[in-house]
TrEMBL record:
<keyword id="KW-0732">Signal</keyword>
<protein>
    <recommendedName>
        <fullName>Alginate lyase domain-containing protein</fullName>
    </recommendedName>
</protein>
<dbReference type="InterPro" id="IPR008929">
    <property type="entry name" value="Chondroitin_lyas"/>
</dbReference>
<dbReference type="Pfam" id="PF05426">
    <property type="entry name" value="Alginate_lyase"/>
</dbReference>
<dbReference type="InterPro" id="IPR008397">
    <property type="entry name" value="Alginate_lyase_dom"/>
</dbReference>
<dbReference type="GO" id="GO:0016829">
    <property type="term" value="F:lyase activity"/>
</dbReference>
<dbReference type="GO" id="GO:0042597">
    <property type="term" value="C:periplasmic space"/>
</dbReference>
<keyword id="KW-0456">Lyase</keyword>
<feature type="domain" description="Alginate lyase">
    <location>
        <begin position="71"/>
        <end position="347"/>
    </location>
</feature>
């Protein structure tokens, strides 16, 4: 069991903790957007799209209220460590080798999801359900101030991070494992984005709940501190920091976000600088993302990687670092990467391989981030074009979140 590192950080945090210890800045959310949306929803002046997004949020929160709390203890496959508290997932694009009777070692078929990797036997779906579920509940609590939502969110946090009988150990050593291969790959760190994208902001949203205590906050801070330490100190974490594709970008996002939440601004700034420098070898002269264009789902992974990079840039705003305008010595930048992708919105053909139809709405969180930063008519027009592609009956999470936090935006 990997409890020593968690226990060590718990003791440190208990000695140093105060209510103001953690950052008061959101990671993904925006304080002004939240306040404006809440006020307009209460007054009934929000756009129809925002009111619909809010209604969907409450429906989703009500659904989560009825679900059992996810826990790593529910998996049926025991990790190599023998400890079910260790997170376990299997890499989705790997399949049994048909040339071998036992199927080992598994082989990679990029872009083709093996359904056996997505079952309840491992933890990936549970982790995603926990992260998204806590986030949805915390937003519902913020907008309604109904303690029912906060109580369930806190219960889910307790099950996944705090209760010693059910908690996940703060590492991803067995994430994206592959049958027949040693556990020396850092790619499982990608799964951790389900924690870092949602949990720090959720903790900020539920901080005003009567159910949330200093003791619980202390233990959550200790868990996140231990996980950050694993990311930057462990052999797998160090390997993750050296990756130059979307895995490396989401690694850097996790480190930057956790460092900001935990008040380690120097580490956050250092990671942002490293991210800026990574653009030189990540992008072509035209803005194409070299490693993502090699994938069989090249448009999706290009958007996926750029979303990580823009998420880091948004955090940089809180420490006076303008990654948005950063250019390498060869003029490579975030805006150049977006321009390369945005042509498809205007009808240009995507010239790279892709197993699936290009989904223009994959660009939505990226373009929304650029619009929020620059507020230009060009980005407004691009946003409108993307939003026009969204099926009103779809369950597109990107469009729902956009409308929830942009109550004044006009189509």
């Amino acid at each position: 069991m990997h409890r020593p590192i968690y226990t060590r950080y718990l003791l440190i945090v208990m000695c140093l903790f105060s209510v103001t210890m953690v950052s008061q800045s959101f990671i993904r959310l925006d304080t002004m957007q939240l306040a404006a949306a809440k006020q307009q929803i209460i007054e009934g002046t929000a756009s129809p799209q925002t009111l619909e997004a809010y209604s969907k949020l409450l429906q989703q929160a009500s659904s989560v209220l009825k679900q059992d709390n996810p826990t790593v203890m529910d998996k049926s496959i025991v990790p190599p460590s023998g400890d079910k508290h260790d997170y376990l997932s299997i890499s989705r694009y790997w399949w049994p080798d048909p040339k071998r009777q036992d199927g080992l070692s598994w082989i990679r078929l990029d872009g083709q999801t093996n359904p056996e990797t997505q079952t309840e036997a491992v933890d990936r779906k549970r982790l995603a359900l926990m992260g998204r579920g806590v986030y949805v509940l915390s937003l519902a609590y913020y907008f309604t101030e109904d303690e029912t939502y906060a109580t369930k969110a806190i219960s889910m946090l307790d099950t996944w991070f705090i209760n010693p009988e059910t908690l996940m150990n703060p590492h991803l050593k067995f994430g994206q494992s592959i049958p027949g291969h040693p556990n020396t790959r850092p790619f499982g760190i990608l799964d951790g984005r389900s924690i870092v994208q949602f949990i720090p902001d959720a903790l900020q949203l539920i901080a005003t709940s009567t159910q949330w205590t200093i003791n619980k906050q202390t233990k959550m801070t200790a868990w996140l501190s231990a996980y950050l330490a694993w990311l930057i100190e462990s052999p797998l974490g160090i390997k993750g920091s050296q990756l130059t594709n979307n895995h490396g970008s989401w690694y850097k996002f996790q480190v930057t976000a956790l460092a900001m939440y935990l008040g380690q601004t120097d580490l956050a700034k250092q990671t942002i600088v490293v991210t800026e420098h990574s653009l030189e070898n990540m992008l072509t002269a035209e803005g194409g993302q070299i490693h993502e264009l090699e994938r069989t789902r090249s448009f999706f992974y290009s958007c996926f990687n750029l979303e990580a990079l823009t998420s880091i840039a948004k955090i940089g705003d809180d420490v006076d670092m303008n990654m948005w305008n950063y250019k390498t010595e060869n003029n490579k930048s975030l805006s150049l990467a977006l321009q390369y992708l945005a042509h498809v919105v205007n009808g240009a053909e995507w010239k790279h391989d892709t197993l699936k139809t290009v989904n223009k709405t994959d660009l939505l969180p990226i373009v929304a981030a650029f619009f929020d930063t620059y507020k230009t008519e060009d980005y407004r027009t691009l946003l409108r074009s993307i939003l026009a592609e969204v099926d009103k009956d779809s369950r597109d999470a990107n469009s729902q979140e956009f409308w929830l936090f942009h109550p004044d935006f006009k189509i």
